[in-house]
Amino acid sequence: MNIALWVLQVLLAFMFIMAGAMKLFQYEKFAAKADWAKNRGLAVFIGIVEVLGGIGLIVPGLVGIAPVLTALAALGIAIIMLLAVILHISRKEPGVGFTIVLLLVSLFVAYGRFFLEPF
C-alpha cells in the first residue's frame, strides 16, 4: 500500500506543480484557455496553493519531518478539487470528470496517509 500511495502522491504532485506553475509563470497563456481565470489575483493564488500542495505531497514524507503534512496537503488538494468541480458544474463546462478523478485520488491519498499507511 505504501508504494501505491507514493506513486499516487508523485503523480498528483507532478500534476499540481505543473498546473500551478502555469498559472504563476504563464498566466496569459493560461487565461486564454480558462474563461474563469480573468481575475489574475485569483488565478495566481490558486497557482501558489497548487504548487505548495504538490510540494507538500512529497517533501514531508521524503525527509521525514512532520510527515502528517503529506496527508494534510492531500486533504487541501481535495478541497481545491471539490471547489473546482462545483465551479465547472455551475458553468456547465465539459471535462469535469477528470477533476472528479483528481478529487477522488487526493481523498484516497489523504485517507491512506492518515489511516492505512501513515509514515
Automatic annotation (TrEMBL):
One GO cellular component, as annotated: membrane
Protein name from the UniProt record: DoxX family protein
Principal place of residence: membrane
Localization (cell): Membrane
Superkingdom as given in the UniProt entry: Bacteria
Transmembrane portions of the chain: 6-25, 41-59, 65-89, 96-116
Entry membrane topology: Multi-pass membrane protein
UniProt keyword list: Membrane, Transmembrane, Transmembrane helix
